Amino acid sequence: MALQLPTDGCLLFQGDSITAAKRDLDGSSDPGQGFVSRMAHALAGTHPNLRVANRGISGSRAADLAQRWQEDSLALQPDVVSVLVGVNDTWRRFDRDDPTSAAAFEAWLALAGVS
């Protein structure tokens, strides 16, 4: 089944550094320098009225996304959402001895309404 994008509306990318890709956190319309920027550029010709939003923040874990879900996700009223997160949930176990259990990860995703 192919994804049907609206001709206008909002395509939201949410996640960690892979999504953020050096985006200006003060510039809410900055798509960053990675795949979100490339998607926005690729879609500009066929979906000129589609707003592409990047709310990725480097270092984010699932819990961080859940905490800011209302402001950074639901408030934008997106039509389509892409979530790419999880590496930092694993990595924090090694760099800060702050593990995220599978149960906690699933609970945070459920809180955010992601399944």
Describe the structure.
- It is a single chain.
- The protein has 115 residues and is α/β, with parallel strands linked by helices.
- The protein has six helices and three strands, in the order E-H-H-E-H-H-E-H-H.
- It has helices at residues 17-20, 35-44, 62-67, 69-72, 87-95, 102-111; strands at 8-15, 49-54, 80-84.
- Strands 2-1-3 form a three-stranded parallel sheet.
- The longest helix has 10 residues, at 35-44.
- The protein is globular and about 45 Å long.
- It starts with 7 loop residues before the first strand and ends with a helix.
- The model has no long low-confidence stretch (mean pLDDT 89).
- How much helicity do the residues have? 25-40%
Number of DSSP E strands: 3
Number of helices: 6
Which structural class fits the helix and strand makeup? alpha/beta
Task: Note the topology.
Layout: E1 8-15, H1 17-20, H2 35-44, E2 49-54, H3 62-67, H4 69-72, E3 80-84, H5 87-95, H6 102-111
Parallel strand pairs: 1-2, 1-3
